[in-house]
Design brief:
Shape: globular
InterPro entries: SAM-dependent_MTases_sf (IPR029063)
Structural class: alpha/beta
Protein name: Putative methyltransferase
Pfam families: Methyltransf_23
Order of helices and strands: EEEHHEHEEHEHEHEHEHE
GO molecular function, one term: methyltransferase activity
Number of helices: 8
Organism: Candidatus Scalindua rubra
CATH topology: Rossmann fold
Number of domains: 1
């Protein structure tokens, strides 16, 4: 199978994915996790053949439930969203106009965009939009980006947080972004960093606790259902190959104050306690858990 980003056929085999029992027709031995030898993109080989209806079932049934966010984490996320919208406005050279959130989930970003003067459009294959947003003037499309068929040069900003790692054909999505984005418009994307220090440690733990054949990074068949994996090199490669100019590419995450987010002395508390020093070390090593980029047309 060719790499979804650069087209290279040579890849390093990394191991087998874990399988979700909800889909017994998918057999573990039919799939491997590989890394492209040219652009370092991580993907499943062969391509996963789940239908859109099956993906919808996954995301509507348990994607948000598996998050199990505490009140503190919800407040932290809201603060992060506010800072991201502020950052977008700082870099934008266009008048405030139409704002698309692809993979809008419950609609928190749409709400913040609306409060900042944008005309918000939300898109998601699953309908988890907060019902309180129905009467706010937000445009919501339940389906995929290509079904929405937005006009050329339509949006001044496209926002996509933790979505590209779920997309079967990420390069086609970026190409569509280019078509529907206004000249000098901005795209804001966040994806997990597969080359993070914590992922390196998790790989060692998987080897010790499971077996060497299992690969513990991207998880196509168990939450959070990541079928692609990016690092700084592959993300930048994909962006530039689609004609965009990178404005900023940064890393963050992995060093949250977990003692506010976890019940004290719980199992998850001690697990986060063990990982916290790694999160701090990952900062000077440039191996944090998330990649955040802004790029323009």
């Amino acid at each position: 199978m060719q790499c979804k980003i650069c087209g290279m056929k040579k890849a390093t085999i990394l191991g087998k994915p874990r399988i979700n029992k909800k889909f017994p027709r998918i057999k573990e031995n039919n799939y491997t996790i590989v890394r492209c030898k040219k652009c370092s993109f991580y993907y499943t080989n062969p391509m996963i053949d789940l239908t859109q209806e099956e993906w919808v079932e996954l995301y509507e049934d348990d994607y948000f439930e598996n998050a199990n966010l505490t009140d503190w984490q919800i407040k932290l996320h809201q603060t992060e969203i506010m800072s991201r919208i502020k950052l977008i406005k700082t870099f934008s050279t266009l008048n405030i106009d139409k704002f698309l959130d692809m993979g809008c989930g419950e609609g928190l970003v749409l709400k913040e965009a609306l409060e900042n003067g944008f005309k918000p459009y939300g898109l998601d294959i699953a309908n988890n939009l907060d019902k309180s947003l129905d009467r706010t003037g937000i445009n919501f499309f339940n389906g995929n980006l290509f079904e929405a068929n937005y006009p050329d040069d339509y949006f001044s900003v496209i926002y996509s947080d933790s979505v590209l790692e779920h997309i079967e054909k990420p390069m086609l999505v970026l190409k569509e972004f280019y078509r529907i984005l206004q000249p000098n418009g901005l795209v804001f994307i966040i994806v997990p960093n597969e080359d993070s220090l914590i992922n390196d440690i998790k790989k060692i733990l998987y080897t010790l606790l499971y077996n060497k054949s299992k690969y513990g990074r991207i998880k196509p068949f168990v939450p959070p259902y990541h079928i692609n994996g990016f690092n700084k090199m592959s993300l930048e490669y994909a962006i530039k190959l689609n004609g965009f100019t990178v404005v900023e590419l940064a890393q963050f995450g992995g060093n949250y104050t977990f003692w506010k987010a976890r019940k004290k002395f719980s199992k998850s508390y001690f697990f986060e306690l063990l990982l916290y020093p790694l999160g701090l070390i990952s900062i000077p090593l440039n191996k944090q858990i998330q990649l955040q980029t802004i790029f323009k047309k």
